[in-house]
Amino acid sequence: MTMTAPIKFEYTYSELPDSLYTLMKTKPFPHAKLVIFNHQLAKELGLETENLNEQQLLDRVLGHDLPSLAKPLAQAYAGHQFGHFNLLGDGRALLVGEIVTPANQRFDMHLKGSGRTPYSRQGDGKAALGPMLREYIISESMAALNIPTTRSLAVIETGEPVYRENQQRGAILVRIAGSHLRVGTFQFAAVQKDPLVLKKLLDYTLTRHFPECLSADNPYLSMLQTIICQQVSLVTNWMRVGFIHGVMNTDNMALSGETIDYGPCAFMDSFHPKTVFSAIDVQGRYAYENQPMITQWNLARFAETLIPFIHPNQNKAIALASEELKSFETLYENAWVNMMGTKLGLVISSHEDKLLIDDILALLTKYQLDYTQFFTVLTYQEGFEQFNDCQLTLTALKSWHARYANRQLNALQQKPKIHEKMIQANPVVIPRNHLIEKMLNNWQEKTSLSELEQWLSVLQKPYQIGNKTSLYQAPPKAHERVEHTFCGT
Length: 489
Prior knowledge:
Largest sheet: 6 strands, antiparallel
Number of domains: 4
Oligomer: single chain
Shape: globular
Mean pLDDT: 92
Structural class: alpha+beta
């Protein structure tokens, strides 16, 4: 597939009942400018982009050259936002179409910040440049960290102003996703009170994402089981790298198993289980330590929509779904212990091993040690003296480390390759919040683009120490700390 002609989009989502979306036309942006384009992702998608000029790239990804039969659309969905149910939808986004790669994988191409839709409510449908660049940086970092995520193909400056606290530069993020099917999509379908709408959505999701479940005795229950396992894996990986999503509403949980909707998200610096970055999350509903619990809560909302299809007897259906939801806790606990064991270079096999985990997390919390930096030091066994700067009475850390070193020596003797896994569990570099904010605040097109590209090149190899890694490793100084991040709506 080449891009000498317009992208060949498909539109399977438009075959669903029209209550689930609104067909729209893409909006022209005559003053648009390309800020950054992800040529590597374009290649992975089977799109040839190297020989196109800026205007040709803009026309392709903004849908300016779509044929008359194209069916861009805004999707309808609902969502529990901070626990409160609302009818929502793509208020500032548009699904341009679906791309099928040479490997026969299907992806959505989505424009975030493309203007008002019928679901915008009181919003302007626009996005500011800063938050769109933030999503580009973090989503591409997540992909490099081997964590399932939506991807970013491009950031485009629209040439139109956006008004928030002040006037800002408008922008569009071109987002690539396995799909934009959310828990909230099913909640929206369920409240339509038309079983056929929900049935068609379920069957579409089975076919698109879970074809292996179609042959199961109970396909819908099998799909629930699969999605639970996917989400356990996803949130465990978030916890592994200290990522805090920030807005784990049901409309922000993708059934493709990808991280989606990078709003007030951030990577934790100083370790504390109650860390929150969203300025409006005053109760800490989506704090770091609550992410597993909220994942299970969201899955319960999804399971509720499946009840009529799991079993004709409602009580039996509820019992079957409840049993699967209860399995989340055991699955997550096992996954989390194994993950922490890998971060420590251990095979956790005893109560004493689990105490090592509990004790080091308690020390990290008490002395506010940097999460990423600590595990980097532990992985490469050098630099412990730097924690003097954290006002840590080293007695506690040395005592823990003596127990740990003895246990790890035994682990390495049992499984020589365990240190290799430890390296792949502990990133050396993450997209530090203060570095993101500094770059966005100082953004000056071409000069900053080279800085951004250099940083992204390091972030693309987060588990490797390179010549420029040290430029991006250091935790923030006190005056550099970022307490809150924003999504820009």
